[in-house]
Amino acid sequence: MLSLTYFPLSPPLTTTPTPTLSPPPPLLLRLHHRTVSRLLCSTAQNVAIDDVVGGRVEEDDVVRLPAGMRREAMPEHVAVIMDGNRRWARTRGLPAVAGYEAGLRALKGMVQLCCRWGIRVLTVFAFSSDNWLRPKVEVGFLMRLLERGMKGEVNNFMRDNIRFSCIGDPSKLPDPVKELITYAEERTKHNSGLQLIVAVSYSGKYDIVQACQSIALKVKDGVIEPEDINEFLIEQELQTNCAEIPNPDLLIRTSGELRVSNFLLWQLAYTELYFTRSHWPDFGETEFLMALRSFQQRQRRYGEGDS
């Protein structure tokens, strides 16, 4: 909805001399928030404007895209398998813990880029259910890193309007980590910007199994009939139902591996896949832009024929 507020000129001049008039106030342009949030300004950068008053764009409400990026072709949900932290450290003669520390910094940078470019959901594979088989010292460090990272980021989530969610099997997680997850989810649940979903102790197979178990209980209790079971119902029981957009548009995997490694198996059915040889700690703005440009060059047909 577009409404204009116009300040008219002074009344018509008469034969009676009148004092010199100052210029009329400028035309003020006010646009409904939902309408303007879809507008694009095609300059060297695409700009989505959330509010315009008197031609001035409020800095906090601007989404700026790099040159060449098309707003309408941006993925809404990006998923990342953050692989290669240990290899990154090994190539530099550093202990594995240094790679994980560097990986956490890379994740913080990725979150900021997603906020800046208007991506709505970012899901990252932080710790697989299979990672519990790693050496206890390494697992213990990863749990402490997760705990420390969450403690330090909740205030930043509030500042940046980020909603935090966690998916996976929490049964093996240390109590302090579980408490922090609950606190972060509760504290940020009303935030309306980027939704950051962190998969911890996660398995795509387990996600589907627990969904089936939940549906089976509903059949047993007479809540639904077996013939009521369909794809939509299964999706509602998957852990990614915490997101408004549960299925990723784009999956990025770093470090050169060409597999999805038990991550979001159902949700990736029509996701565009992008693999890079860069280790996760090296994955920054340049690499992310390469992935996004690749995504914007693809045709997503969802099983339909060529257009």
Question: What's a quick, concise take on this entry?
Answer:
The chain is an alpha/beta fold and 307 residues long.
Brief descriptors of the model:
307 residues; single chain; UPP_synth-like_CS; transferase; alpha/beta; UPP_synth-like_sf; globular
Description:
By secondary structure, the protein is an alpha/beta fold. Helix content is 35%, strand content 18%. It has eight helices and 13 strands. The longest helix is centred in the middle third of the chain and has 24 residues, at 136-159. It is globular, with a radius of gyration of 25 Å. Residues 1-61 have low confidence and may be disordered. Its cofactor is Mg(2+).
Beta fraction = 15-25%
Any idea what the radius of gyration is? 25 Å
- Overall number of strands: 13
Low-confidence segments, given as residue ranges, are 1-61
Q: Span between N and C termini?
A: 33 Å
Q: What structural category arises from helix and sheet content?
A: alpha/beta
Sketch the topology as an H/E string, one letter per element.
Answer: EEHEEEEEEHHEHEHEHHEEH
Quick one: biggest sheet? 6 strands, parallel
Proportion of residues in helical segments: 25-40%
List the helices and strands and how they pair.
Elements: E1 2-5, E2 28-31, H1 33-36, E3 41-42, E4 46-49, E5 52-53, E6 56-57, E7 62-64, E8 77-81, H2 85-91, H3 96-117, E9 121-128, H4 136-159, E10 163-167, H5 175-188, E11 195-202, H6 204-220, H7 231-237, E12 250-253, E13 272-275, H8 285-296
Parallel strand pairs: 8-9, 8-12, 9-11, 10-11, 12-13
Antiparallel strand pairs: 1-2, 3-4, 4-7, 5-6
Helix pairs in contact: 2-3, 3-4, 4-5, 6-7
